[in-house]
Write a structure and sequence with these properties.
The protein has 4 helices and no strands. The chain is an all-alpha fold and 127 residues long. The N terminus is likely disordered.
Length: 127
Amino acid sequence: MAATVSAAPVESDLDRSGAEEEPRGTEPEEDGGNVQTGPTAGAQQNRLAKLPLSRIKTLMKADPDVSLASQESVFIIAKATELFVEMIAKDALVYAQQGKRKTLQRKDLDNAIEAIDEFAFLEGTLD
């Protein structure tokens, strides 16, 4: 008994536009031209958090009120930290560019903290 395999997409594999659907669990790859090879290429591409989760967990456990920290909570804290750093860096970059510089300096962070209400809780922390 020989089984035949059809190479043509079945109607259920086509979406309404007639294009083939990608298998579930895969997303279109957008690497922007960055081709990575080697054993760590897959691990770097699949990482969702850029900060080391073990370090975040250690910092969370340094608080006496925290006895246990789930992996989900550690991930959420890491992701929120990344987004916060990205946001304040972008806002500080505006002040660096006004000074015709490409490098962020402390005064750029100070200016961003003073000018943007969302960062009011940070006033005086860099002193």
